[in-house]
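Bumping my old thread because nobody answered last time. Still need a sequence for this structure:
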């Protein structure tokens, strides 16, 4: 079975992780945790839904994993205020029942067919992607510890998530049911796993903010110096052909070129998912400023009212987006402190 985990929160993670390895021998006693793990592996291999439910309390695992998932999804976005986070968490609690139902359906589909039933996937794939769960790889089971009362066991399941860059040990808890059979009932440290992904994403976001701040600050200085030169040249009157020629060259050779270089530097950055909207703002600003410089330089030649009108409209839009980007960046930076 492919070690890549393509589905799962809670039970899905446990099921597919453990399904990735043949850690336990086939003659394990039916009333041991080993047998439950072996049965889970075989149930997924054979698409045996009944056997899967014999050893997995899917509702219990999903319910106990949900809060950790929500924390991970909201905490990474540091641009959100505490009130906004509370609102999101309240909303996700309202959506808990239908979302868990969709997850359950997706997991059942995987067990029964070996694949997601996309027609029933109401945003589950996107949720798993945002949570970073779709990239989990199974690495092995280190062992099972049973408590002294012999009514609870914990399987140590090693997984790897590329964003974290190191292995993480999930604690998959099993309890005995009324028939004396062992069942997976929860992931004891799923919230800790999500916290590690969140910490990595926060660090990526902070690095992105630092780099964009440095790039923008450096290029803003160049543009400011060019604008001062523009003011000095314009004093002589833009009605003079030599002044217009100098202004045209300033727009194309300095201002436009600098915005093009800035755009390339920003485009080359590694952009965290949380900063996608901010990156898009930066790209649009650069494109508008480049367009403004081109139109203004053209106006130095044709002197048409429509040409300068187009130029000024692009500059106005750029100024609006710069203010928006500054506010988004400020919220991100404030949230990271």
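Sorry it took so long. Here it is:
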């Amino acid at each position: 079975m492919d070690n890549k985990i393509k589905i799962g929160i809670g039970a899905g993670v446990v099921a597919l992780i453990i399904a990735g390895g043949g850690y336990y021998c086939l003659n394990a006693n039916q009333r041991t945790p080993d047998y439950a793990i072996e049965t889970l592996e075989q149930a997924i291999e054979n698409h045996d839904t009944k056997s899967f439910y014999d050893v997995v309390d899917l509702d219990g695992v999903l319910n106990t994993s949900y809060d950790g998932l929500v924390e991970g999804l909201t905490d990474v976005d540091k641009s959100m205020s505490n009130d906004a986070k509370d609102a999101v968490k309240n909303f996700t609690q309202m959506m808990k029942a239908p979302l868990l139902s969709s997850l359950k359906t997706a997991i059942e589909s995987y067990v029964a067919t070996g694949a997601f039933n996309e027609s029933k996937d109401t945003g589950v794939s996107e949720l798993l992607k945002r949570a970073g769960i779709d990239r989990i790889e199974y690495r092995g089971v280190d062992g099972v510890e049973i408590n002294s009362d012999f009514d609870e066991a914990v399987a140590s399941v090693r997984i790897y998530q590329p964003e974290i860059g190191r292995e993480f040990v999930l604690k998959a808890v099993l309890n005995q049911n009324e028939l004396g059979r062992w069942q997976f009932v929860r992931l004891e440290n799923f919230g800790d796993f999500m916290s590690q992904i969140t910490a990595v994403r926060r660090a990526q976001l902070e690095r992105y903010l630092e780099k964009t701040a440095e790039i923008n600050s450096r290029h803003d200085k160049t543009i400011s110096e060019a604008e001062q030169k523009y003011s000095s040249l314009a004093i002589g009157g833009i009605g003079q052909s030599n002044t217009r020629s100098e202004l045209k060259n300033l727009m194309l050779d300095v201002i436009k070129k600098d915005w093009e270089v800035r755009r390339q530097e920003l485009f080359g950055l590694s952009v965290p998912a949380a900063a996608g909207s901010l990156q898009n703002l930066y790209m649009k600003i650069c494109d508008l400023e480049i367009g403004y410089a081109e139109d203004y330089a053209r106006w130095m030649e044709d002197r048409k009212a429509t040409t300068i009108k187009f130029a000024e409209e692009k500059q106005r839009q750029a100024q609006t987006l710069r203010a928006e980007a500054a506010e988004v960046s400020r919220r991100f930076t404030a949230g990271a402190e």
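Residues 80 and 331 are 7 Å apart (CA to CA). Let me know if any region looks off to you.
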